[in-house]
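Postdoc handover notes: sequence design on the structure in folder B. Input tokens:
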């Protein structure tokens, strides 16, 4: 079973990656002849306003989403790990968003933002809700942040719950005897002991947010204007629809290097933080 699996992996993953890297050094537009042009595509990326705007949006989105997801999911995990009624049922409810298709959720919230919320805002005389935020260049990205966070919180919560369940309850009993309050217990006991799980969530959350694509396709299509064009969306849209296959292949290679670098940096910094804690 190992060899067939490796063959499939190489055919559908490694080989396209290698071909994409090779095409990034050409002028191929997706069909016909091509010629080798060296680093021209990579040099042009640094002068492209569309690429710069896409990087700005993507990192702004990823940083805010990662913070929201980890803060809320950790709070939910602590609540669900405590002695409350219907604990298992609540865990199932909170995990539900994670099993829904991203595109389906995106189309549903597109309708919510475009129809339901404006009608509700008009009825309640709330100006900020009376218009579709997805049509506002300054606010559209916040709608995508909300949807992406709502769906990502479920998975992060499960990871945090797994970490919390590894903590021996005797430690908490000892802290109660010593008179530690809730915040002291969290800061001195809970968080240091779940630090490895925090590292996992931070890396996965940031990596997933940097690759945002489906929500944009379903909710804004990169608009209004270019307000919500992420790097992944730009690579797909202009690579396959704009006749810039080789150019966007270079963009994809560069972005791959950026994501790997950020992930390795995160692991190094957070792993050191785990030791310090």
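Designed sequence:
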């Amino acid at each position: 079973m190992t060899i067939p699996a490796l063959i499939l992996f190489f055919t559908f993953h490694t080989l396209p990656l290698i071909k994409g890297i090779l095409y990034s050094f050409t002028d191929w537009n997706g069909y016909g002849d091509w010629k080798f042009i060296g680093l021209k595509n990579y040099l042009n990326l640094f002068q492209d306003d569309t690429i710069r705007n896409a990087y700005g949006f993507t990192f702004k989105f990823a940083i805010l989403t990662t913070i929201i997801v980890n803060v809320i999911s950790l709070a939910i995990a602590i609540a669900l790990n405590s002695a409350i009624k219907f604990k298992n049922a609540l865990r199932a409810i909170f995990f539900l968003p994670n099993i829904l298709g991203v595109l389906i959720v995106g189309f549903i919230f597109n309708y919510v933002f475009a129809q339901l919320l404006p009608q509700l805002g008009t009825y309640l005389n709330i100006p900020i809700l009376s218009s579709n935020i997805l049509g506002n260049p300054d606010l559209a990205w916040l709608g995508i942040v909300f949807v992406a966070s709502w769906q990502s919180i479920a998975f992060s919560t499960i990871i945090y719950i797994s970490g919390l369940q590894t903590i021996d309850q005797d430690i908490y009993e000892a802290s109660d005897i010593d008179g530690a309050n809730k915040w002291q217990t969290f800061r001195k006991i809970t968080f240091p002991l779940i630090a490895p799980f925090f590292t996992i969530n931070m890396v996965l959350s940031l990596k997933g947010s940097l690759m945002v694509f489906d929500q944009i396709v379903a909710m804004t299509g990169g608009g209004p204007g270019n307000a919500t064009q992420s790097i992944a969306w730009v690579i797909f849209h202009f690579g396959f629809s704009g006749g810039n296959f080789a150019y966007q292949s270079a963009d994809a290679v560069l972005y791959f290097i950026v994501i790997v670098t950020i992930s390795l940096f995160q692991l190094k910094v957070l792993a050191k933080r785990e030791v310090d804690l």
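Context for whoever picks this up: Residues 49-81 form the longest helix (33 residues). Don't rerun without checking with the PI first.
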